[in-house]
Specification:
It contains 23 helices and 16 strands. The chain has 604 residues and is of the alpha/beta class. Among the domains are: 140 residues, Sec1/Munc18 (SM) protein, domain 1 (Rossmann fold); 127 residues, Sec1/Munc18 (SM) protein, domain 3a (Syntaxin Binding Protein 1, Chain A, domain 2, Alpha-Beta Complex), CATH 3.90.830.10. The strands form 4 sheets. The protein has a 7-stranded mixed beta sheet, with helices on both faces. A 5-stranded parallel beta sheet has the order 2-1-3-4-5. A two-stranded antiparallel sheet has the order 10-11. It is globular.
Length: 604
């Protein structure tokens, strides 16, 4: 299950095992049979740390989702609540416990806060009269969760909102703690680079924590050569744009049709995955259950195609089909017993590959239905016009039409914010017009959302300063005409022409260095800096000739799958010289990101 976490230069299984060890220790504190009551948001992240088999080994017999009212029947000694420190969840837990007490249930109650224990939550339980019912109240510090062999996430859903809207630095503290845990397992990171106010805060907290624990430094040869901390608000454009890699569109499709099951699995329309009937076969009923699919590099074909531009998927699947077909044809060449035996041993893998190909071909057809639609093309055209500076300083007729047709509000907000970002703000007259149209069409309750977008800099009035975006675009080559989507030679393939600003900064840092773009860095919000951390004596890394560097890139406020794809592309470049591991406070897309800033979220 976890082999995909150890395929790269950094074995992320070490982090997973450390998290599993802590979980086992907590479960063993609660002697006897157990039922776990889950905060539903945590089931996805925990599924990556421990499968049911591990929980079963530690006497977990039942699992329920946290809901109001009475708990489902379970003949167990211990009830353990796994929850985030949220006041509204404490009210539900109190309801559960009071219901059990009324039934004179002889059970022991325990609560595990993830990722931190909360005095406010304990106070709420006390007010509800149930705090004394808990035998164990503990915390499970799940800061960085390994999602793939090169990807870590804290899955802190409110991180961007907290940092940039509410000036709450709690998630930054958790980030610093998570990075300290990482250094305890993988060695001190010698160089820290950063851009942005939040990046500066995290670096300062890390350095302070290192001084406080100076005597307990780990004697581990550093795995990472450098850490790059990037604020999300230095690049507000990238998450707003329609993402065009296979993984992006697939996840977007699933969240629209069903909602994402969790970050490693998706549900897909069942009718598209019905087994094809043979000629003359009487009709079978179509499947009614959604198709569940794994979304990480443990699935071989998915790992191959997930980062490709959607326009390159057809050719990639066709090529794979020929390879699989040729492999099956080999059976005709197997003459000796040894050759037949070898073919038979490869058969399960070949059949799994053929099944996977059929699934991804069905998905590609679903995606094609979306990407060949007029609505998709029109939306993409307007986005690319904004990115290239076309008519960003006037009211956009496409946005007007979308509002008139009452298209989803999130789509409207993304487009208006994109126009604002690409124009370094909108003229007051234009901004007021858009606001008026949105409020009159979608309701005045969205006034708070518009204010939130202004506070975070996504939507803002143009001040007297000149538009700096064209300078940034030209200097960093953020727009590449004729981007090669089939055989890419630049990161701009992920958006069919637009190179994510955040990734261009990462690329320039590796070669030739940020000094070459000092003026552009000053135009972007927040300070840029470099810190060096002293390594324990005798632990200096000697790099072999031709050996690439390993850089951890940490996105504060969220990262998109397009940015992840672009970093993977840079890691694979032969002359790149750097392998990237990606970490973030949250995996996001444009819809989830805008939703996090809405005070009354709407369906996408």
């Amino acid at each position: 299950m976890s082999a995909h976490l150890s395929y790269g230069r950094v074995n992320l299984n070490i982090l997973r095992e450390a998290a599993r060890k802590e979980l086992r220790e907590f479960l063993d504190k609660c002697a006897g049979s157990k039922a776990i009551v889950w905060d539903e948001y945590l089931t996805g992240p925990f599924g990556l740390i421990a499968q049911y088999s591990l929980l079963k080994e530690h006497e977990v017999e039942k699992m329920f989702t946290l809901k109001g009212g009475r708990l489902p029947a379970a003949d167990v000694k211990n009830i353990i609540f796994f929850v985030r420190p949220r006041l509204e969840l404490m009210d539900i837990i109190a309801e559960n416990v009071i219901s059990e007490d009324k039934m004179h249930s002889p059970r022991d109650f325990h609560i595990l806060f993830v990722p931190r224990r909360s005095m406010l939550c304990e106070q709420r339980l006390k007010e509800q009269g149930v705090l004394g019912s808990f035998i164990n109240i503990d915390e499970y510090i799940l800061d960085l969760i390994p999602y793939d062999g090169d990807l870590l996430s804290m899955e802190s859903e409110g991180a961007f909102r907290e940092c940039y809207l509410e000036s709450d630095q709690t998630s930054l503290y958790h980030t610093a703690k998570g990075l300290m845990t990482l250094q305890a397992l993988y060695g001190t990171i010698p160089q820290i680079f950063g851009k942005g106010e939040c990046a500066r805060h995290v670096a300062n907290m890390m350095l302070r924590m290192k001084r406080e624990f100076a005597g307990s430094q780990t004697q581990i040869l550093p795995v990472f050569d450098s850490l790059l901390l990037l604020d999300r608000n230095i690049d507000l454009l990238t998450p707003l744009a329609t993402q065009l890699t296979y993984e992006d569109i697939l996840r977007g499709l699933c969240s629209f049709v069903y909602g994402i099951l969790d970050l490693c699995y998706v549900k897909l329309p069942p009718e598209k995955f019905a087994a094809q009937k043979k000629q003359g076969e009487v009709g079978k009923d179509l499947p009614t259950e959604p198709k569940k699919m794994q979304l990480n590099s443990a699935e071989e074909l998915y790992a191959e195609i997930r980062d490709k531009n959607f326009n390159a998927i057809g050719a990639a699947l066709s090529k794979k089909a020929k390879i699989i077909s040729a492999a099956f044809e080999e059976r005709h060449n197997a003459k000796t017993v040894g050759e037949i035996k070898q073919f038979v041993s490869q058969l399960p893998h070949m059949q799994a590959a053929r099944s996977s190909l059929a699934n991804h071909t069905s998905i590609a057809e679903l995606i094609k239905d979306i990407t060949t639609s007029e609505a998709f093309f029109d939306n993409l055209t307007v986005e690319q016009e904004f990115m290239t500076g076309v008519d960003t300083d006037k009211v956009n007729t496409y946005i007007e039409d979308c509002i008139a047709q009452k298209d989803p509000l999130i789509k409207i907000l993304r487009l208006v914010c994109m126009q604002s970002v690409c124009n370094n703000g909108l003229k007051q007259k234009i901004l007021d017009y858009y606001k008026r149209e949105i409020l009159q069409t979608y309701g005045y309750e969205h006034m708070l959302t518009l204010n939130n977008l202004e506070k975070t800099g996504l939507l803002k009035p143009q001040t007297g300063t000149r538009n700096i975006y064209p300078t940034i675009r030209k200097t960093l080559k953020l727009w590449m005409e004729d981007a090669n989507e089939q055989n890419p030679n630049d990161i701009s393939y992920v958006y069919s022409g637009y190179a994510p600003l955040s990734i261009r900064l990462t690329q320039v840092l590796a070669r030739p260095g940020w000094r070459s773009i000092e003026e552009v860095l000053k135009m972007l919000p927040g300070p840029h800096f470099e810190e060096r951390q002293q390594l324990p004596a005798g632990l200096h890394k000697k790099r072999q000739q031709g050996e690439s560097r390993t850089t951890l890139v940490f996105f504060l406020g969220g990262v998109t799958y397009a940015e992840i794809a672009a970093l993977r592309f840079l890691s694979q470049m032969e002359d790149g010289g750097t392998e990237y591991i990606i970490a973030t406070t949250k995996l996001i897309n444009g819809t989830s990101w805008i939703k996090s800033l809405m005070d009354r979220p709407e369906a996408p």
